[in-house]
Amino acid sequence: MALSGKTALVTGASRGIGRAIAARLAADGAFVVAHYGSNDAAAKDTVAGIEQSGGQAVAVRAELGVDGDIDTLFAGVERALAGRPLDILVNNAAVLAGPINQVTPAEFDRLFAVNVKAPYFIVERALPLLRDGGRIVNVSSAATRIALPETAYAMTKGALDVFSRNLAVKLGPRGITVNTLAPGVTDTDMNTWLREAPHLVEKSTAITALGRYGQPEDIADAAAFLVSDDARWVTGHWLDATGGLHLGPGGFHN
Length: 254
Fold this sequence. Notes:
By secondary structure, the chain is α/β, with parallel strands linked by helices. The chain has helices spanning 16-27, 40-52, 69-81, 105-126, 151-171, 193-196, 198-206, 216-227, and strands at residues 7-10, 31-36, 56-61, 86-91, 130-139, 177-183, 238-241. It is built from eight helices and seven strands; from the N terminus they run βαβαβαβαβαβαααβ.
């Protein structure tokens, strides 16, 4: 119970990587505020799963990327914390878009509103609540290291990488660490092709050093390290949690 007595806010916690991170932090003893955008049923499942495992969590609904989103989110967060400080913030919520010739101006604006603007102002609002010695983890993507077709999405994650480095310097005097966690191909609802296109799965695993695609729990375990006391001397770091995706020519397993 390394996080016993601590509080955490995880955005985008109703499914996928966010749900796995929320569950792991709760298993480590944290009281988790599980943010979600719209899927009430999925958010209830997240909280129920945590409670059935002996953890504590509450769901807070707030659609990001719209007017008043930060006010709505933190009204719920402050109710849930009930006067307690915040120890951990994980900015995980994000949306995806297709290749450059498929993204409309409206989709482009929404990408940056959810993936860049929202984390920026979530951090700004969270800072008065965040305890000295706290932890911030921003979930980025291998798309900032590898050239992939989803250009606009990669641009948003690149902005998040820069944000993390600047924050690490800004918040260092308070003992708050800020790190970036970059998943690769992970089995989530965002990557439906893992179940629909076996030939693509074969190609992606062939260029992954560990020979498989990731599970949300793989990413959650890395996040648990970054928010733990074991990572107290790690800040401004970009942690590759891809299983070694595209490190070099494939075929090493042959």
